[in-house]
Structure formats: C-alpha cells, structure tokens
Amino acid sequence: MSTLSPRPLTKASPVAERYRHVRATSRELGAPLSDADATVQSMPDASPAKWHLAHTTWFFETMVLKPNLPGYEVFDESFNYLFNSYYETIGERQPRPRRGMITRPHLDTVFDYRDHVDAAVETLLERGASPEVAELVELGCHHEQQHQELLLTDILHLFAQSPLKPAYRDPQPLGVGREPGEARFVSFDGGIVEIGHDGQGFAFDSEGPRHRALLDPYRLADRLVTNGEFIAFIEDGGYRNPLLWLSAGWADILANKWEQPFYWFQRDGEWWTMTLRGAQPVDRNAPVTHLSYFEADAFATWAGKRLPSEFEWENAAAGLSMEGNFAGSGRLRPKPAGPARDGALRQMFGDVWEWTRSPFSPYPRFKPVEGAVGEYNGKFMCGQFVLRGGSCVTPEGHIRATYRNFFPPDARWQFSGLRLAEDA
Amino acid sequence: MSTLSPRPLTKASPVAERYRHVRATSRELGAPLSDADATVQSMPDASPAKWHLAHTTWFFETMVLKPNLPGYEVFDESFNYLFNSYYETIGERQPRPRRGMITRPHLDTVFDYRDHVDAAVETLLERGASPEVAELVELGCHHEQQHQELLLTDILHLFAQSPLKPAYRDPQPLGVGREPGEARFVSFDGGIVEIGHDGQGFAFDSEGPRHRALLDPYRLADRLVTNGEFIAFIEDGGYRNPLLWLSAGWADILANKWEQPFYWFQRDGEWWTMTLRGAQPVDRNAPVTHLSYFEADAFATWAGKRLPSEFEWENAAAGLSMEGNFAGSGRLRPKPAGPARDGALRQMFGDVWEWTRSPFSPYPRFKPVEGAVGEYNGKFMCGQFVLRGGSCVTPEGHIRATYRNFFPPDARWQFSGLRLAEDA
Amino acid sequence: MSTLSPRPLTKASPVAERYRHVRATSRELGAPLSDADATVQSMPDASPAKWHLAHTTWFFETMVLKPNLPGYEVFDESFNYLFNSYYETIGERQPRPRRGMITRPHLDTVFDYRDHVDAAVETLLERGASPEVAELVELGCHHEQQHQELLLTDILHLFAQSPLKPAYRDPQPLGVGREPGEARFVSFDGGIVEIGHDGQGFAFDSEGPRHRALLDPYRLADRLVTNGEFIAFIEDGGYRNPLLWLSAGWADILANKWEQPFYWFQRDGEWWTMTLRGAQPVDRNAPVTHLSYFEADAFATWAGKRLPSEFEWENAAAGLSMEGNFAGSGRLRPKPAGPARDGALRQMFGDVWEWTRSPFSPYPRFKPVEGAVGEYNGKFMCGQFVLRGGSCVTPEGHIRATYRNFFPPDARWQFSGLRLAEDA
Amino acid sequence: MSTLSPRPLTKASPVAERYRHVRATSRELGAPLSDADATVQSMPDASPAKWHLAHTTWFFETMVLKPNLPGYEVFDESFNYLFNSYYETIGERQPRPRRGMITRPHLDTVFDYRDHVDAAVETLLERGASPEVAELVELGCHHEQQHQELLLTDILHLFAQSPLKPAYRDPQPLGVGREPGEARFVSFDGGIVEIGHDGQGFAFDSEGPRHRALLDPYRLADRLVTNGEFIAFIEDGGYRNPLLWLSAGWADILANKWEQPFYWFQRDGEWWTMTLRGAQPVDRNAPVTHLSYFEADAFATWAGKRLPSEFEWENAAAGLSMEGNFAGSGRLRPKPAGPARDGALRQMFGDVWEWTRSPFSPYPRFKPVEGAVGEYNGKFMCGQFVLRGGSCVTPEGHIRATYRNFFPPDARWQFSGLRLAEDA
C-alpha cells in the first residue's frame, strides 16, 4: 500500500485537531516497543517501526514545513536520506531492503524529531494555514494513518520471526466468538452505477475520478469467510489440488510449501496462529486472515463461488455506515460476525481487508497529481490486486467505501481475507 | 500466451482442409532447423522447436484420437510425459525449464510422430467426425497456430544467444521503408459497446462471454509507434528518468540494465537488431517491437499519451478487415505503415502485438470449460497484460478483433509494440 | 579438472602416432551422439560434446598450427570465440554457462574442422617438428585425453536428465561381480619420501617440482569402498547424522536433500543408478562412485577411518603397474575388485578417482609456465581437493602415479569414490 | 573463525582471575552500544553484539554450570534455543541468518544474564573446581575472547552499512604514521621443524598434535604490506588483470565489482575507509587490511612474491615475544611498522591477521575431542585458509605462535592483510 495525493479539501475541517489526534496515536502505537523492536526489518517488504515513525514525520517536514514555514529549522539534514520512502523527485534515499541497518538515530531521538516537527506544524497552523497547506496537512494525516496500519502488520511479522513469539499487546486469550451461521447471499441489481470518490472530503488520487460503470446483477455473502470454513478447505486437500489455483499461485505453493494461512501452525493437533497478542488458538468463528490473493481465489473456486470485483463491492458498500472492528478497539484481531439481519451485509468495514478480483488499474481519465505528492499511487498500477473495507488494524476514520488498498497477489502479512460473491 | 478451449463451432467448416493446411505449415516452419537448433531451450519461458512440433501433435493424439478413434495405437507411450505442457488432469510431465534436456527423440522421429498422427486424424475425419470431434480438431488447429508463432519467437531468442547471430531465413537486408509521417488520432464516441466473441466461428474461451461495456470518448493513433520515434525517447533519456516508469518497471531497468529494446545493439554508432533474418540495421520507419509493457507504458507517458484499453482497441477494430503483415508473407519483420487515409486506422492487424493497459481478467460470467481443454486461459488471469492485433509472425487466419493475447509486463521476446491513445 | 603445461619432452616419442591415436579415439567417442546430444549443456559445470570435440581441436590450431605452420589457413575465424575455454591471454570467449547455445556449427562441421586441423598437424609433423612443437603436440594430446573423460561424464549427466534415460552404449546389464571380501589394510613406513614428477616423460605442471615430504607411518585399504558398504552407511542413517559431516557438506545435504549417491534412485525397493549403459541395478560388489568429497569424508568418519592424503597415496602407488579398468575396456563402469593378495593394493588405477584429504595446493617452488599454456592449473588452486588414480572413463596411457586431478568438494558427476586410510 | 576444544591445562593458572578479566572486557566492549546497535545482524556471516554477549554466557551455563554446579538454576530456558551457535549435540537453535530477529531479550536482560552466570561461576570456582572444570572455564574464556574480536568486526560491518557511518569509538582522526621504508626479507633455513602446540598451556584442538614438517629455505618480509603499496597495485590495474587472480577470485571480482579493499571509498579524490572510529582517511603507511585471500594472493603475484605457508610463518614466529598492536590498546586500527632492525621481523603479532597459502587442514593424527566441545574446528576443515598472528582487535593474551585462525577466501570483514614471502 502506498501513497497518495489529495482531493480538494472542500468541507470545513478541524485540521489541527485531526493532526494532534493522528500524531498522538502513532506515539501510542510505538509505546510498547523497545529500541531494538523498532529497528529491525524482518523482510524487504516490511519496514522498522522507527522508520514508520520517522518517515511520516519527514513527510510533514518536507512537504509542509520546508516550503511553507519561513525560518523552519530542519531537525537533522541526514534524515532526508534516511527517511525518504520512494520520492524520486526529492532525491537519493536509503534502499528499502536496508532500512533495518539504521540503528542510529535511537528511537528516543525519533520521538524528539516528532516533537520538533509537531511544534512547528502547530505554529504553522496557529498562524492560519492557507487551504493548500491545510490540504497538505490533511494528506499527511491520512498518509500517517496508512503507516500506522503498516507499523502494526510489520511488527507482527517481526515478532512472528522470534522463537519467543512475543505479544505486542496483552497476551491473554480472547474469548471464542459465537458461531455465525451459514453465510446468506444478498442480491444487487447492477446496471450503470457511479464509482469513485465524489470530491467531498479527503480521498487519495487513485479513488477518482468518479465515473460510471456497468455491472451485471450479482450477489455478495453477508459476512466474511471464517477460519472454520477455511479449515474445511484445508481438510478437503485444497492446498494439494492444482485445479483450484491460479498458475502463479500454484508455483508459489510448490516453491514455498504453503499448507495453511500465514502465521498458522499446529500445536498438539490444534491450529494456532501468531497474533499481535502472541501465539493464540485459531478461533473458528472469526474471519480467516493473512491470506494471499491466491489462497482467497482458490478458496472461492473450491466453494463454487468467486471473488467480487471492486466495483461490486463499492456499489454494495455505498451508503453503509462505516462501523466495524478497527484498530481503536484495541482488539487487533478479526472478530466473529454479529447476528445476521435479512438483506444486510455484515463486516463490510474493519476486521480484514477483502481481496477483490480487480487488478489495481487507473480509473478513466485518472491523472497523477503534479509534483512529489503525485508519486503516487499511479506508479504501482501493475501486478497488484485491490482490497476493500479496512481491517482490525486500520485506524478509525481512515476508511471509506471508495478506498482502494492494493497488494501483490502473494502478500500475506496484511490482515487480508475474503467475502464470497456470485453472478445473480 | 497459452491455451484454450472452444466456442461452439456453428458454421459449416472444412475442418479437414484447415487441419492439413495448419499441419503442413508447421512442417515448413521446422524445415530450416537442424536437430540441435530444434532441441536447445534458450530460457525457461521459451520452448525448443522440437517440443512445439511434438506438443501440438500430442494434443491431437490425446484430446482427439485416444478418446475418439477406436483401435488407435499410441506412437510412443513416453511422449505423454515428454510433451504434455501443463495439463494437470492428464498427468506428470517434463518440467518446463527442463524441456531442453530432451535430446531424444530425434527431430526426424518427431516428424514421424507427426505423420503417424496425421494419418490417424485423416482416418477419423474420413469416417465422418461428430460435431464434438470436429470442434476439437478445430481447437487443435488454433492451438497449433499459437505454437507456430511461439516456435518463431523462441527460435529468434535462441539464435540471438549465439555469437554467430544465425539467420532463420534469408539474411539479405530488406529495403528501408517510407517515412510514414506523423501519426493522426482517430476519435471514437464510446458509450455502451459490445465486447467479446459472439459465438459465430471459433474463439478461445477467454474471448467471451460477449457483454456490454461502458466507454468514455477516446482517440487512437492511426498507426503504430516507429523505431524512429522510439530512438527519440532513448535519446531524450527515457531509460534514465524514473518518473516515466511504473515502479516495477524501474526496478527491472536497474536490475537488468535495460537501455534499449530487446535485441538491439550498437554497431559503428548505428542501432542494429537481431531478427529472424540475422543481425540487421534498425529501420526507423518500421514499428518498434520487442518492448516490454513497461517500455511501452513509459514511452506513452513520455509522449504525453497513454496506452489504449483492450475494450477501446476492440471497439475500434470491430468490422475492420483482418489484413496485415502476417507470417505467411515470409517477411517476418514489422513493416512501415502505408499511406494515411483520413479517419482510417492502419496496422491494426499484424506487424506487432499492441500492448493495452488492460490486465488479463475474466469477462463477466466467464467460466472455464470442463475437463482438460479447460486448462485454460483462466488459470493465467493474474499478473499479465492483454495484447491485441497479432504480429508479423502470427499465422494468417488466426487473428480476430476479439482475440486476447497476454504476457507478463516484463516479456520482451514476442513481437510486441504499441499504438498511442488519449482521452477525447 | 583443467589444463596444463608441459614438462620437457626428453625421451624420444612417436608423437605422430600418439596424435593419430588420440584424435581417432575422440572421433569414436562422438560416434554414438546425434547433433542434438552433442549440443545441449545440462549444467554450467558440464560442456556439450560438440564443444569438447571442437575445443581440443582449437587448442591444436591455436597453440600449435598458427604459430608454427606457415600458411596455415584458419578453418573459421569465429571458432576462436566459440571454443576458447578460459585462456584470458587469447581473448574473449563464449561464457561457460552459455556453451549450450551454440547450435551452429553442426556436429558434422565440427568433424570437418577436426579433419582440417588433423591434416595440417600431419603436414607439420611430416616436415619434422622442432622439440618445442613436438612438446606442444604431446601436451595437446594429453589435454584432449582429459576432455575425452569429461565428454563421457558430461554425456552421462545429460542423459541422466532425460526421462528416457538413454544409454550411451549397449544397454544390456553387466553380470554382477564377485563379493570382494573384507578390505585388508596395507602398512607403509612413511619417513622422508620423494613426491612429484621427475621430469621423465610428460606431466602437467602441477605435478612438479619433485620434492621431499615427511610422512608418518600409515595404512591403506587394499581395495576401494563398495556399493554394498555404502548402502550400509545409508541404512545406518549416515545421511541424517550431522556429526559425520563437514559443516559445508551438511549444509549441502540440507539444501539439496541428498540421501544417496548421485544418479541413484529406487525402483521396486532396489537401488538403481544411471550409467553410460542407461539405468542399471546397483552392483553391491563394485566400487561406489559419483560421491562428493563430503560423502567420501563422511563415510570414512562413519567407518572410523579417514581419507588418505595425496602424498600417502602417491607414495603407495609409486612403482605399481598402471593397469586397471580404463575407458578402453568399453565397460565404462567400475568393476569389483579381483582376488586379494597379501600386502598388495588393488584398484589403485582406473575404476574410480579416489578422493584424498589434500586440498589442491602448489608444490614447493611451483611456478606456472609462461604464456597461454600456463593458464594453468595454478589458477584453480583454491577450494578444490585432489583425486588420484584415474577412473573407468580415463583413457589408457593418460594416468600416472603423480597425476593430480582436482574438483570442488561438492562435485558428484565425475567417477569419484574412495579408499580408506588410517594412521599406523 | 570458530571453536574449539582444550589442550590439557597443565600449568597452575589463576583461572578465576582470567575469568573475571575476560568477562569484564566483554562488558566494556558492549558499553558503547544501544539496544538496537546490539540487535541488528548486517549479514548472515556476522552476528549481533547481543548474540555474542549471550552466546559466550550460554557456553559457560551449558558446558560448565549445568553439569557441574548442583542446584544451578537456568536463567531462561528459551536461551538454549536462542544462543546455541552450532552444537548439533545440544539441540535445535535459531538459524544463523536469523539471529537478528531476536529483538527480545533486551540488551539489559542479556547483561542480567551475564550477572547471573558470573555469580554462579564464581560460586563454583570458590568451592574449588576440579581440573576438568577449570579447563572448561579456561576454554570458555578463550572462546569468549574469540567472540570479542568478532563482536568488533561485526559492529564495524553493521556501522559501515549505515549512511551515517557512526563511530564505535572516538571519531577523532589518528595521526598519520611514519613511512616505514622498503620491506627487507629475512632468511630462514627450513629443514625439519617442529610445528603445532606442545601442550604447555591452553590451545585449541586444531593447533595440535605437535609434529615434524619439512621446509625448504625461504624468506619473509620483515613487515606487513602497507596501504600505500596496495594503492600502487590498484593504480597499476591490479583489479582489472585476470592473470593475477585465482580463477574463483576473478569470478568474485566480476560478480561483485570489487575495485578496492573492503570499506574503502573515494572522497574528493582521496581514499577513505570505514573504521571503528567512523570514516577516516586511509593511512598509506599503515598495513592494508580487510582483504580477501584472493586480494592478498593477487597482490603477492603482482609483487613477484607469494604468500607464506602457515608452517613457514609459525617457524619464523616461534620464540618471538607476543607483543603488538592488540585490542587492549584501544587504537582499533592497524599501525605503521616501527623502525627496522636487521634480521628482525616486525608486526608478527597484532595489527592484521596474515593470510597464508595454507588451506585449513588437520595436522597428522589430529582427532576432534569427544562430546559437544569437540564440535569443533574439525568440521570447518574445508574451503578455508589459515591466517596467523592476530590483529588490532584481538584481545591481549589470546594469541600464540601456533594459533590457527581460518576464513573462507572471500571473507573481507575481518582485519586481514598480508606479509610477502619468497623461496630462498
């Protein structure tokens, strides 16, 4: 998942308040971590927590403060090299797979850096920021929320590498959820529908332009696929039947010996899984997560269904309340679905990102924004699939029905699961 | 590019005649090759010519003769292992990257195998084949035509590895073409259009079902991008500017040091290229080819345009005559465009496959056919982009306006180029 | 194994006769091969038969004819690039792992090349060659004999990759040998001994200078380790016990899942092995072969013994008759030991190369010869172990008691086995 | 470099004092490091400082306390998995390349672990340890000293990866040394000499048994090769001339684009190098270091000399005072040679490990010790070369004339350099 350029910020927004809230949240997320926890990079696709905390700060320093706050004093000139992610227009940077070599600065210094930048942003906002600046601050907040989610998924990955299986948060087991009952399928008419962000409030550039699309009638399951259902797939030999898999997925299975979702393992004949609360038994009633696209697609084929397209999903989600199991709840794990209600979709937001069958492609007339902030979702529009709806580690207030997350089809370390769909 | 399952064969078709024609063509394509030429595999994505000649024959033996010709005697039981491509339902097979280890049987034996199968197919057809069998034979013919094109692109790749740069065919230089003039853009209204094959005549399964799609107004260049235009991109530093490239493409450039189209090299300050006629000077007036998707996309960005979607291309191609520079001409290289005519698209068929911006995805309500022949375009619907229109090594009669070829974005050994598009 | 520079050729030698014999032998070795068999390269460490046949010819053309036969006309200028092995002083060459891309010239043309060079060498010798030239011809003959052995081991490797397991020669099974009885250990006093070639007759540069070495008393088994003994090692869990293995060998076992000697496989509960006569049952009485150094060393540790040093071996071999099971017998497989005789070593020459515990290092005062022919055993004196005694595919007359073959410790495709040793 | 099993501890030794000294030194070495510095693993061959500090402690806990101190309470059961290095007999362990994933325990906890074990060892020694236990403690001390050196070389490697080039110690530049003058060659007679440890005092198992060896007369340079001399090699194209290099070394140069010693870089036209004092200018008068075996060997060839054998070195070092520039000086960089004295060798101990031409092989009658401590130098006797004399980061009192260090020929991150030799 990457960043991002802004839609116009048209409605009055308490940007300073949002800024403080987001920045304080990041600090809280970093609190359980030691300097070492925050430094190590467990794989090239993951970044150290320290890097997330510093990079989001660098974004404000570089995009907001340097061009807009006269007299702003840069905290440390070397940070521009250390904490640039991939903005080619801004210059050279630490290669991504080498982010874990940055043992200095200390985590404490990164927090000092955050203080320094926060004070300057407050000054800027107090002086009365122009709409353009307010828009950039808002963009920076959304950008930081993306990194909050990644900080959590990356820490989970790191802790999963340790034989100690440390808990990021309270290692007490959560109660097992209620059996959610069979999924029911909700019907949608399709036809010509409006897709994409309408420009009211913030959105990333790839969510627009809003445009019309033509959909056939379709049906969506009213809840997410559960661990129990996925265990049935495993027990039916799902991981050993090539006919269920995309060719590239089958090659991954053979090469990597995948036989269960990421982070799962057997203990005394039971399925366990690594979580942000340490090693825990798999809850059969909760949504399955840490699936690659390949696994989600193979499961759907096995079940005689298919994955929804991102347009089907968005059309169904339009108008729904954005409630769900998000990071703020502190649960940090997906939760079994609540009781079914006729014709109502459950778990559309939060819990797990839902793989769609849609490759991440530009909408008609999409153009990246000019300048550094336009680097850009656009350059990732190749080899990725869209996920929708947010997860149990997505910050509240970050998600939208039009929000397009994306990952390569073999990515498993995000909280990614699925909802079944079929033609009507 | 892969295979394939049939649309119903509804119009009366001289299937025996088509069979003979296709089979004789393969034999001609193999004629310039020694046993060694036909055996070596130059990279895992390419197959030996011997393998193409035997695999297409194995297809008829396995799918047509064994189930339908009582008393048919298998030519050699071991060939089922050697020459199965990827049909999981049919059993184990020689691993793809090890196809070049098969020095036995000799190329002559493969031709004997072809004789044996051809005689049996003739017998079957003379006895009067059922519509189902006729359909399978037709499918086998189209399948073989796909492999004819691959045989040529794979031989070109092999010969390009040799320091001798041998010519597959007559090494005499071709005359340089006429300067084709600036491309003109032809406008299309879009709206709701019909896409996909209508079931009249043969098509592969992924070309259907025919369905409606919604298009914005758009414009297409009336000819392909030329070598001369691509040289301007190179000279403008196109290969050194990361802002022009998809992120995955830029990574490929850095890793592989791409600085020009595949097969190009400098000789005495001039651009030369390896071709099926040996090393030849680059013709600035001819269409550029052997581009990856990344290079096609970067060129379009540099030119201030974009690649067309596959629906835009198909909508523009619908109803055009399927004429062009195909394999049968014996030229085996792309040809400069003929004279422009107002509002008319040139070079839509033949010359080079045109990269579209469309990932290879299933059409609405697409379902793979049951059984082995349903293995299947569907399992390749991940990580590939669609190309349209055929090339100078596509057999005549193989292409259609609805035909969807597909390759990963880093593939360069096919005859792949581009046509520019823009929003109207 | 590599090449080589000459010792002075001091005794009168029928060099023309030797030349004819060696050259004719290569031709016979190539006879059972098709153009395709002779072209494919089955791994980077192996070379195509065509390459061996041409490279040895190129050696005579480049080292003997071009500098010494006025008016000699080069057969094909491009061959200098194609068939140079690694002589940096002579220029650029086809990269070793890409030797299999050379489908042209045809095998027939390579035989024409051999004719052309043979005729010129005959002319040169008839005119009366200087001692220096005679010495170079002799060197070329020994060089070609090395490649004769490699041609056979490389063809075996290639044919082992084919699911058809073709036989290079007569696929009839050989009779099973007699049980050779327990090995007996023969004692040697050690002390100050003379090691290395004394300059009488031909030797490679690395065999000298002759020098003194100090040996402790030691004992050598009177025969090679057999397949039956090695099966006992396997059945005792030898491949699963890390304490038996060198650290680097254990890493290889884990990475490559070695569980038996190279080319071995199970068929109906019995051990079989690929041979130059096709797939054959393992003969428990014959010497075990196709072992890496790691496997030889682990076996010796398991047996409570050790490998001999190369000096121990040479001291024991000095003065023995150079008889044994060589290539000329046409058996092309190791042979069970004949009857024991008190105090007499059996199987010292032929059958299998014997791994010694000696790294391939220069002898005191060793200096590579000047010029291209001095490229050179010396540059391989790193990361290799010495093997002694020749094998069942070594040409008669090629071996000596002072002969030092060498391979990296993970090499398994040569005919390599072991003889046990211990301190007295 | 690896470990180790003991020679009998025959002379009365103040083992408790040595223990305290060694343990306190490790603590001092860890003092400049943050938790993050001590956790990150910069390459598979290097280990985190935290790991070194804990592993050496685990060694005492496992080998000394658990079998010998009744009632000893293990500090943390999980540490047996985390901090075992490679002792197969002791059980499963964290894979070496994943040592950097261990962010927990905290560095402070590792120091608590050290306190816990130190207290228990003191108790054991106060109670009066048996000679066997005292021997194991002494072994543990030497083992820990080896890891002290590795801790420093591994931290240097880590800090070299950081764009900030942090200094482990005082970043002030050291004064440039005096020009040491031309090297003089000292002659040695050779003959039958005694090699290996005589059993008086501690030695690792691979240093024995003491035995006789036969040496030709030889000469050794009286000082180490300097940076200035190595710059002359670079400027003469040494890195571009394949004829100077071992074949495997030349392959490394091509693959890794080596053009200077490890850690060197150009700044404003001058050579700089990363050091434990941060980035520093290269001192032309100081010994060159961070060379692979390949570079040392190529330099010697270029200079018309050769590397000494380990026996030549040991014979020359026998009886010399073990004085030199060791870790205790706090310099942590090699130092220019002092004034020459006729016939006297300089810099034999300390400064840089001297590559010898000797592969690391067992001495005659060498047998690894039984049990876990016998895992063992022996299993590394393949693919490594011996280095002699210690370096500027070797602890005082750790080195001996018979000491055999060993590394693969491509290792560059140790303080490794060379002294020239020649035949007399």
TrEMBL record, chains A, B, C, D:
Transmembrane segments: none
Listed pathway(s): Amino-acid biosynthesis; ergothioneine biosynthesis
Alphabetical keyword list: Iron, Oxidoreductase
Residues covered by the Sulfatase-modifying factor enzyme-like domain: 184-320, 336-421
One GO term of the biological process aspect: ergothioneine biosynthetic process
Coiled-coil regions, chain positions: none
Domain of life: Bacteria
InterPro entries: CTDL_fold (IPR016187), DinB-like (IPR024775), EgtB (IPR017806), Sulfatase_Mod_Factor_Kinase (IPR051043), SUMF_dom (IPR005532), SUMF_sf (IPR042095)
Domain DinB-like: 19-149
Record keyword Iron present: yes
Protein name as catalogued: Ergothioneine biosynthesis protein EgtB
Species whose genome carries this gene: Jiella avicenniae
